[in-house]
Each structure stands twice: as C-alpha cells, then as structure tokens.
Amino acid sequence: MKGLDLKSFYAQSLGVSAPWKVTDVAFDGDHSLVRITVECAAGVVWADPETGERAEIKGWRERTWRHLDTCHFQTIVTARIPRLLLKDGKTMSVSVPWAEPGGRLTRALEEHVIDLLRECRTVRAAARFAVLTDDVVDGVMRRAVTRGLLRREESFPTSLGIDDKSIRKGHRYATLLVDLDNGCVIDVADGRTIDVAAGLLRGLSETARSGVEAIAMDMSPAYIAAAREVLPDAAIVFDRFHVAMHLNAAVDKVRRTEQRKLSSSGDSGLKNSKYFWLRSSIDLRTRGAAEFRALLARDLQTGTAWTLKENFRHFWEFRSLGRAMKFVSEWVDAVQSSGLKPMIDAAATVMRHLDGILNYLRYRITNAMSEGLNSMVQSLKHSAKGLPNYEAFRTRVLFFLGQLDMRFS
Fold this sequence. Notes:
The protein is α/β, with parallel strands linked by helices. The protein has 15 helices and eleven strands.
C-alpha cells in the first residue's frame, strides 16, 4: 500500500494511539480472515482512575474484537489487556481507544451498525447486513442510547405531549413524553399510572417545567392528575384525535345495537359496515363510496349518529371561544334530541372535559405527532416480532425517535 504500510493503515482505521501499537497484520485466505495484533508498549505506568495514583498490574487478559470487514474478509483485532489492582482491592481492565469497555466490536464497527440500524429500521436486518447476531446488534443499540442520553443537552419545550403505547399483548403499556416543539420523544416509562406519568414530568428540570405552557393528552385520569400535580401552571389540552375516537366508539355502539335489530328481521344492510362509519364526510366524494352513500340514504340510527359525529368536526375550526361554546351547546342539544344513548354519553364526556377541549383552540397542539410515532412504534414492534420486554421497547423508541447524538465522535 503506497505511502502507508498495513500496520499504519489499520492503526488509523482502528484509532489506535499510544501506548498501543499495531504489531502484526496476518491474512488467512482459507478462512477469509484478517487478524490484527495490537500490543501495549513495555513499561507503561497505569493510574487508578478514581485516585489518580499508580496502580499495580495484577495480570493480563487476551481479548478479541470484531472490526469493519476488509474486502469481505472478516477482520479480528487481538490484544492483551492489563488488569489493574485498585486501591479498594477491586480489579479492572484498562480501557482501549478502539472499543467501548466490555464491548466486543470496535467503535468503527459499532458506528457502522448504528448507520445500518437507521437505514434498515430493524435489528434483524442490520444484523444480517453486518453478519452479526441479533443480540450483538441489540447491545450496540443499547450502548448508543445510553451514550446519547448522557450527551443530550437540556431542552426547554413550551408544549408537551403525553401518551400511552401498547408494548405487547396482555395490556402491557408504556408512557411516552414527547417534545411537541422539536418532534422527539423525551423519555419512556413503564406503565401508565399517575406515578409513572408524574415521574416522567419530574424528569424535566425545574426550569424546563416552569416553561411548559401546555400539555396535550387523552382524557386519562392518571395523566390529568399527574399534569396538575407536576405542571400546575400548564394548560391541559385534550387531544382532538382522542375526542374523535370517543365519538367513533359511540357511533359503533349505535351500529352494533341497530345491526342486531335489523339482523333479527332478516336485514343484513349493516353487516360488515363498521369501517364505513369511521369515514369522514369528505370520503363521500371519493371513489368506492357508493355503498356508504347508499347506507346513509337509509333512515338509520347509525346514520344519525355518524352525522352528529361529523358535525362536531366543525368545532376544531373555531377561533372564537364564545362561538365555540355556543356551537357545543347546540351540538349537545342535537345529540340529546336524537335519543341515542351512546351518543348522549359521548356528549356528556365532552362536557365534563370541555375546558381541556376548549384549550385546543388556544394552543392548537395535539398528539398527532405522538400518534404518528405510534405507527412507527407499531412498525418497530412488528419488525422485532414482538418486543421481549419494556427495556427493549424503550431502547428502540429512543434510538429511532429520541433525536439522540449517538456516535462516538
């Protein structure tokens, strides 16, 4: 290699620095391997990292690391590492400049794996391209997230979102705290209780908490109580998409009740129509909506419920709080006049949470970004064939959605 011998080349590739030196590079063509030997200079004095005093070398341990492949040859680094006897009687291996403590990959390879994960979005695919096991790649991801969180600078969001996400079947949930200003997940906690939500909010510094003007959430009593406890001066904004979810659920209850009645008399018109009623009025103008329009033309209670649900969409367009409150009052009267109990119950829910719903008109924030994250989280779970535990869930969410600086340099 002109101008640069192999030892110097690999020393630069690895980031080897004094007192370490690449002393040998061997090619094993039969096994497609490159073996790099790194040695420590003789007579080096090592210091106890805590006291700074000279530490005695108790022994040496040979270790190997996987490095970036060389022309499709797997590249292995080998070095004997001194073990130090510390003042407190414990022993420790010295750190090396080319790898993380306890890691089995060089830093250069770990950065390559981080890039693969970002592109592939799955541990399994990144492991396949890097020719590593899933467990090794998962370890790279965990270390990267730990490094990124330690390096993360404090932010001071004015708007937060707090939402729950299902980890796996069996009603296991995690709570995500989202910076709505910057569009990133601040942190994740196991569960969705008051204590869990309050703990996430307390994870913000006192200065950051004092700057939060509004927090978007669903109507969870736990999240409401946590926000009032930790962020008493922040406005609670009930997320418009969760309000829509409540109204859609009410429409579906009306549909199920009416479908049973119609089916008993031989009318199957509402059968398999559940997802029609989740549509918005604009969908009536799209192709393939003829069957839905035909259902709406019938004198059905489900059609009435759907119309009431759709009419509430106008609320989100108001700029005047006075007009918005007048609209809600008239809408509730119309719902009560319909006599449809599920819709009446949904209207009662709206009225109980009206202050938080009206706050949307003041702050115009939603968990839409968090809900967008939800689809990404679902993709992460699917690609992982289900996540084994909460820690794996948290690691993946923060790796892909935490906007962390996880590289070494």
